[in-house]
Amino acid sequence: MAFTTSSGRGDQGLDVLKYQVISIRQQFQSLKIAAEAQKKALVFSKGASCGDKIYVTNDQEVTYKEAVQICSKAGGQLASPRNRAENDAVLAISLEKKKRPFLGINDIQSEGSFRYINGKAIGYSNWYPGEPNNQYQNEDCVEMYATGEWNDKDCKEKRLVICEFF
């Protein structure tokens, strides 16, 4: 049984809806293509990607607290590698800039219990041999060496900002 309107136009309303759905699908596909092109351009200019995550730097060197704030204000978070591939993506930017970055990992709340910024325990780590060592009893943040390995570091030191977006 066909749907009819009070004007007796039958399936005309349904045809209009079908056309609108087709039009929306085409617009969505165009937006998807444009977004992918922008992602590639962003990664090409100042970043790296891994899966659905994009890693980008603003070339600034700041304290850990400032880095967390910068990334948060931009709508992301300080780079927090959760596997080897993500660690390598962050490392690629670090090597290109020839600067050590802070990672979104710390033991500020409980000494020796390194956690991501969201408070969850880290499930992946890449510590340099002998690290973390809390040298001088004030190393609560994590930096990345040029080898990709991690070192606990004083949060007041200045390191490269690399944010992750997903």
Give a structural overview:
The chain has helices at 12-46, 64-73, 84-97; strands at 47-50, 53-62, 77-78, 102-106, 115-116, 141-144, 150-153, 159-165. The two termini are 47 Å apart. The protein has one domain: Mannose-Binding Protein A, subunit A (Mannose-Binding Protein A, Chain A), CATH 3.10.100.10. The strands form two sheets. It has a four-stranded antiparallel β-sheet, with helices on both faces. A four-stranded antiparallel β-sheet has the order 5-4-6-7, with helices on one face. Strand 4 and strand 5 form a beta hairpin. The protein has 166 residues and is of the alpha+beta class.
Number of strands: 8
Number of helices: 3
Q: What is the helix fraction of residues, given as a range?
A: 25-40%
**CATH architectural group:** Roll
**CATH third-level topology:** Mannose-Binding Protein A, Chain A
Terminal CA distance reads 47 Å
Strand content: 15-25%
Radius of gyration: 23 Å
Q: Structural class of the helices, strands and pairings?
A: alpha+beta
CATH class: Alpha Beta
Q: CATH superfamily, called what? A: Mannose-Binding Protein A, subunit A
* SSE ordering: HEEHEHEEEEE
